[in-house]
From TrEMBL:
<dbReference type="InterPro" id="IPR000923">
    <property type="entry name" value="BlueCu_1"/>
</dbReference>
<keyword id="KW-0186">Copper</keyword>
<dbReference type="GO" id="GO:0009055">
    <property type="term" value="F:electron transfer activity"/>
</dbReference>
<feature type="domain" description="Blue (type 1) copper">
    <location>
        <begin position="42"/>
        <end position="124"/>
    </location>
</feature>
<dbReference type="Pfam" id="PF00127">
    <property type="entry name" value="Copper-bind"/>
</dbReference>
<dbReference type="InterPro" id="IPR052721">
    <property type="entry name" value="ET_Amicyanin"/>
</dbReference>
<feature type="signal peptide">
    <location>
        <begin position="1"/>
        <end position="20"/>
    </location>
</feature>
<dbReference type="InterPro" id="IPR008972">
    <property type="entry name" value="Cupredoxin"/>
</dbReference>
<keyword id="KW-0479">Metal-binding</keyword>
<keyword id="KW-0732">Signal</keyword>
<dbReference type="GO" id="GO:0005507">
    <property type="term" value="F:copper ion binding"/>
</dbReference>
<protein>
    <submittedName>
        <fullName>Copper-binding protein</fullName>
    </submittedName>
</protein>
Amino acid sequence: MQAPSLRACGVIVTSGLLFASVIAGCAQPTQSAEVMLVVNRTTTVTISNMMFHPSTIRVHIGDTVTWAFNDQGLDHEVVSQPSAQQVFDSGVLSSGTYSFTFTEKGTNAYTCAIHSSMAGTVIVS
């Protein structure tokens, strides 16, 4: 009996890796409550219970982030920090939404100008 060729072994190994990848993809993904990978062009950060949900998100250049003010009528203001790559400010809102499109790569820390304990980050890649 002849030993399998190197090429045949490569096909077997590649097939095995493909099969393992498919099987691994069937597992339930885990997602942190604090960090979410955004794969579409728009994502929403909900403001409720005096927090930003999620507090940290990753987006791509050109993506839009929409903050939904849903905190029982409390006033909030989404404001970029001085260290942020881009400057944005929602103004004071108690309901509705504010959207900002990120056009530069970088890290954008923000807070609520009214409640300094509320903080979030938009990471643009």
